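so the lab meeting is tmrw and i was supposed to have these ready like two days ago... anyway. pasting both below. for each one the top line is the aa sequence and the line under it is the C-alpha cells. i havent really looked at them closely yet so no promises
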Amino acid sequence: MRSGTQALSLLAVPLNVHVLRALDEESMLLPDLRRTVGHPPVTTMRSYLRSLTEIGVIERYRENDFPGSVSYAITDDGKQLLEVAEVLQRWLGSAPEEPVELGGIASKSAVKALVDGWAAGLVRALAARPLALTELDRLIPQLSYPTLERRLTAMRQVGLVESDPDSNGRVNRCRATTWLRHAVAPLTSAARWESQCLSDQVPGPGRTDAEAAFLLSVPLLELAPELEGTCRLTVEFRRGSDLEFAGVMVTLTEGKPCSCVSRIEGEADAWATGPILDWFSCLGGANGTRIELGGEAALARALEDGLRSTVVAAQGGAPAES
C-alpha cells in the first residue's frame, strides 16, 4: 500500500465524510447520527461505523443514562483527518470543469481515480513525462495491461490526465494535467496524517513517494526571471546506520524549470535536503521545517519558498501552521 492511500480511500467514501463532519459538531447517539447523515440502511451504517472505530478516527461508548444506547464521538485522529479533508476539498474545488464537493458521487470517482493511479505508480510515471499506455505497461509490469488501461481511462475521465498535444499520429501519449499536479497537496497531507496517526498500520512514505511529489510540484513553479542554475532537492532516508538520498535535479532557465529528473548525481549549483515529512509539510505551506540549504543560497531558498507557496496559492488555500 502506497503512503496516503488509506487516508484518501477513507475520504473517498461519502458516508465516512458525512459521519466525521457530523461528529465534529458534537457526539451523537446512533439514531441521531444516522438521521443526520441521511438515514443509510442500519446494517450499512453499523458496518462503516465499525470500520471507522477500528481505525481510531471515532470512538463508541454506551450512555449510562440510557441502558443499551450507543453514542459516537470523533477522536483527535479523526479531527486531524478532517484537516486532510479540507486540503482534499480545496483540490476538488479546483477541478477543471466545475468545483466538486467532497462527500458527493463526483468526489468519490475523482478521489478513487487519484488513489488508484497513485497506488499503481501511474502518477509517478506521468509526473515525469508524457507516456503511452504501451510505455506504461513496460514501466509498471506488476499490473496487467487491462488494469492499467482501466485506471488510466478513469484518470482521463475525471480530468487527471489528458492527451499530449505533442504526440505524433502513431503514438498517443497522455500527460499529467495541472490539476493532477496540484494533487500533490492532498497526497502529501494524507501521507503526513498516516505517519502521525497510523504509523503502526501502514508504511511511511518512501523513495517513490518523494520523487513523485517533486516531479508533480516542480513544473508548477514560476520564479523570478533572474534565477538560473541547477538545484538538487533531496529527502533523507535512514537504513540502519546509513543515510540514503532520493529526489530530483532541477534546472531553472529565466526562473522556470526546464528540466526536472530523478537522477540526482552530478554537480549542482545549490541543494536543499531534509526528512521526507518535512518536505511534505513544506509542500503543504508550513514554515519551520528542517530543510537544510547549501550552495547558491538565493537559488536554493527560492525553490524551497516556491514549493511552499505554489500549490497552496493555486488552490486558494491558506498556508499551514508550522
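ok protien two:
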Amino acid sequence: MFKTWANKRVIVTGGAGFLGSFLVEKLHERGAKEIFVPRSREHDLTHEANVERLFKDHPTDIVFHLAGVVGGIGANQMNPGAFFYKNMVMGAMLMEYARLNKVSKFVQVGTICAYPKFTPAPFKEDNLWNGYPEETNAPYGLAKKALLVQAQAYRQQYGFNAIYLLPVNLYGPRDNFDLETSHVIPALIRKFMTAKESGAKRVVLWGTGNPTREFLYVKDAAEALALAAEKYNAPEPVNLGSGHEISIRSLAETIGELVGYKGRLQWDESRPDGQPRRLLDTTRATKCFGFTAQTSFGNGIRETIDWYERHAKNL
C-alpha cells in the first residue's frame, strides 16, 4: 500500500523535458525529496553500461520512464530506424535493470501512436492489438508497444510491478516549439505567431485538416502519472486523455484567431494527414486511480500561447 512520497527514492527519465519537468514538480509538491533526473549527456540510456551505472549510483524505489526520441510526422518519416531502435532498447534495458535492482515500481509511459491506424473511436485499451499503427509513426509506436509486452511478461514471470500508461497528445507550457520536431499545437502556435509578425498573407499547413485529435494538458498528465504510481498496480494498459476531440482544421482556426493572425490558411494535401481520428476511452483511468482531466481545452491553449509569447525570443 502506497503511503507517502517522503521516503521514496525516485528516478524520472526525461525529467528535464516537457512532461517530465511538470511531473518532477508534482512529486515535490506531494512530498518527494529524493528525485534523480538522468541527463542524456551523462547518461545515454541507449547504452547498457550507462543504464547499469544509473542504478548502481542511484538506488531507487520508483522509476518513471518518460525519456524518448520523439517528434511529429516529419521527424518520424525522416528517422524511422532511430526512433524504433533508441526507444525500444532504452526502455527494455531500463526495465531489465530496474528488475535486477529490485525496484518496487516501474511506470512506463507509452504512446497513442501504438494504436492501430483505423481504431474505432473512442479508443479502448483492448483495441491495441487489432491492427498495424498508422504508417508514418509505426516504428515509434511499435517500439513503445513492445515495452507493454515486456512489462506484462515481467509481471507474469518475476512479479515485477510495471504499469503502462497511454497518454494522448500532450500540450502546454514548455513544449517543444522547434518546427522540425514539434507536434501539431506548438508547431501551429509558432507558425501563426511568425506569420503575424512578418505580415505573411498565408500559412501553409500539412494535409487536409480533416483528421481529429484529442489533447491532454501537460499538468493534468503529470497528475495522472502521480496518481497511477500511487494507486495502480495491474498489468492492463491505461489510457490518459481529456475527452475533447477537435479537427486539425478547427484547431488551426482556433489558434490563428487566438494569436491574432488575419491571413489565409492553405492546406497542402500532398502532405500526410496521419491517423484519421484520435479519441480515447478513459473509463479505466477514472475507475482504477481516479483520474479525470481538470483543464479545459480553451484555458490550456491560452496558457500555452501566453507562455510562448513570453519565451519565444529564447527558444
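from a quick look at the 2nd one: The longest helix spans residues 80-100. Residues 9-172+214-245+277-295 form a domain with the Rossmann fold fold (CATH 3.40.50.720). will dig more after coffe
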